[in-house]
């Protein structure tokens, strides 16, 4: 098992050990854990800021801007524009062959990015980072988040979170660069390990309002931006940073949309994040189709048939269906070890 990347400290500030951290334009990300007792227990009321006994890492603050952005771009926005110019501009590759499973087990802890190998799954890690007033399920080493409050970056709303089969979906974890979008813009050329890192990289993750996340689907900046205009500069800056880190490209329409947002930005918050491991060999360049296709928005997947069956949680995760809530196709009590209505967390 790899050494943990960062340590929690009592103030909730991210501390990076070893190699210097890469500065990125905007902070936010979350995580989780496998740990859980076989029987329900009283929740801990330990807050995020007091989570030092987890022994892993915490994340930088992810406050949501409320003021209107000034007309002139700031130094941070200018830096994002400069980084945007380093990204290749191409058409979308075919979506053919895309599957969530190509990006590894959902919310796995076995990754080489911030929060990897800390004993908690990525979903709970991000909830811990982005929620305030967090409480944890007992005997999970401050890993399984039970309750908390989200100041939603996408809508500006305050959203209470309560773990449960009918309530967990109120707060979802969004991939800022959607995995389907990434697949069509260079991720096909990445190794499975790199794609798994991308899917679990805190820089690419944000706890957000569930319905808003569903409306985004796999849209890029040309087809979707957060309703909260004061967060758009940070949102676009983070997308650019992620695409640069994983050598993904942008379409012409996407680049134009990003430039429009950043040209009217005020200061965008920055944060330190661990450097992303890069391969020693450069993958072959992708040759786009002869014609540039208009940006596509992935339609919601059709409802799963009622006879869906999963042998175990490994099969659930391989299908990208974890976690399963009671009542969803494929849920069974044998997959829900603690009987709380949420299986394969």
Automatic annotation (TrEMBL):
Signal peptide from the UniProt entry: 1-35
Keywords, in A-Z order: Signal
Domain Excalibur calcium-binding: 309-345
PROSITE patterns, per the entry: PROKAR_LIPOPROTEIN
Pfam families: Excalibur, GmrSD_C
Low complexity composition-biased segments: 268-280
Alphabetical list of InterPro entries matching this protein: Excalibur_Ca-bd_domain, GmrSD_C
Transmembrane segments: none
Region (Disordered): 35-60, 194-222, 264-283, 325-345
Composition bias, Polar residues: 36-49
Compositional bias annotation for Basic and acidic residues: 334-345
PANTHER family: AMP-DEPENDENT SYNTHETASE_LIGASE DOMAIN-CONTAINING PROTEIN-RELATED, SECRETED PROTEIN
Entry protein name: Excalibur calcium-binding domain-containing protein
Source organism of the structure: Gordonia neofelifaecis NRRL B-59395
Record lineage: Bacteria, Bacillati, Actinomycetota, Actinomycetes, Mycobacteriales
């Amino acid at each position: 098992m790899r050494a943990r990347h960062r340590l929690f400290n009592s103030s909730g500030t991210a501390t990076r050990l070893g190699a210097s951290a890469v500065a990125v334009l905007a902070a936010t990300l979350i995580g989780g854990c496998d740990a859980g007792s076989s029987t329900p227990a009283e929740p801990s009321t330990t807050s995020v800021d007091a989570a030092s006994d987890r022994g892993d890492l915490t994340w930088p603050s992810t406050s949501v801007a409320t003021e209107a952005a000034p007309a002139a771009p700031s130094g941070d926005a200018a830096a994002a524009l400069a980084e945007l110019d380093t990204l290749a501009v191409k058409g979308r590759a075919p979506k053919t062959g895309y599957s969530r499973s190509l990006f590894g087990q959902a919310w796995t802890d076995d990754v080489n990015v911030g929060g990897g190998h800390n004993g908690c799954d990525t979903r709970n890690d991000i909830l811990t980072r982005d929620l305030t007033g967090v409480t944890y399920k007992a005997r999970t080493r401050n890993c399984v988040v039970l309750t908390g409050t989200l100041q939603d970056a996408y809508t500006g709303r305050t959203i209470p979170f309560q773990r449960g089969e009918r309530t967990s979906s109120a707060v979802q974890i969004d991939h800022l660069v959607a995995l389907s979008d990434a697949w069509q813009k260079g991720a096909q050329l990445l190794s499975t390990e790199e794609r798994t890192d991308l899917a679990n990289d805190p820089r690419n993750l944000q706890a957000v309002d569930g319905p808003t996340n569903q409306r985004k689907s796999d849209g890029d900046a040309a087809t979707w931006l957060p309703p909260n205009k004061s967060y758009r500069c940070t949102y676009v800056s983070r997308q650019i940073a992620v695409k640069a880190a994983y050598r993904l490209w942008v379409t012409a329409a996407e680049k134009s949309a990003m430039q429009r947002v950043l040209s009217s930005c005020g200061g965008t918050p920055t944060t330190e994040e661990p450097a992303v491991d890069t391969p020693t060999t450069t993958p072959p360049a992708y040759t786009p189709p002869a014609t540039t296709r208009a940006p596509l928005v992935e339609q919601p997947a059709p409802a799963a048939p009622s006879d869906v069956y999963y042998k175990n949680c490994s099969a659930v995760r391989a299908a990208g269906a974890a976690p399963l809530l009671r009542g969803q196709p494929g849920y069974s009590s044998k997959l829900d070890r603690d009987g709380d209505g949420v299986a394969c967390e």
